Amino acid sequence: MRSYFIAGNWKMHKTVGESVALATELVAKLAGAGEKVMIAPAFTALQAVAAVVKGSNVLLGAQNMGPEEQGAHTGEVSVLMLKDLGVSHVILGHSERRHGYGEDDALVNRKVRLALKHGLEPILCVGETLGERESGRLEAVVGAQTREGLAGVTAAELAKVTIAYEPVWAIGTGKTATPDDADAVHAFIRKVLASLYGDAAAKGVCIQYGGSVKSENAAELMARPNIDGALVGGASLKAESFVPIVRFR
Ligand code: PGA
What we know:
Blueprint: E1 5-9, H1 16-29, E2 36-40, H2 43-53, E3 58-62, H3 79-84, E4 89-92, H4 95-100, H5 105-117, E5 121-126, H6 130-134, H7 138-149, H8 155-158, E6 162-165, H9 179-197, H10 199-203, E7 206-210, H11 215-222, E8 229-232, H12 239-246
Parallel strand pairs: 1-2, 1-8, 2-3, 3-4, 4-5, 5-6, 6-7, 7-8
Helix pairs in contact: 1-2, 5-7, 7-9, 11-12
The protein binds 2-phosphoglycolic acid.
2-phosphoglycolic acid (PGA) is lined by residues 9, 166, 171-172, 210-213, 231-235.
């Protein structure tokens, strides 16, 4: 049976206490869930949440990391620190980082390669703005983000990479790409991956959809051939909205 990867991105929400409470509830309610599940709390809550999810089927992700291993980089968090806490995944190149903090493809690529070097599995986020879509630049933008994000990544390393397609105009807006529109972009991303790594490797890559995913639209999105999971923001902040997404089937 096809398996899906559902990840929750808690963004800049929740104190340590609130994070532990939600993680505890999720561990209980997601026990035995058939899908691969990850939650990404704020950096400040990672250590406490790591203790809660330990030994469960809920994986721990970070929302970002610095492009260097260590050193004089005020305010950054390193891959070594994340590994030390038991983090297994890291979201990189989220549109809020690209558009709010000026992260470009070259920087995202350095982070992707550094994560892989240390065995942290990256979720590489790509996606176009509404203006880019409306001016016919969707494929140019998403293609470049995919190619440049993966520059220098080997075929063996690709197996550890998840791509998240998140149209910027659908994030936190309540607007979702239609399942067919999203699937078409996922198919395009797979074509780009095939051009870089060959068909078989491209087929094996998990491509998540993100942007206003909720329990009401999850099953329909997951039914599409190229949608292999979801990266969930707002609806991941409460068990009552996240659990039904993970248990969409
Ligand atoms: P959203 O966010 O589900 O709130 O639209 C998705 C994301 O930014 O990962």
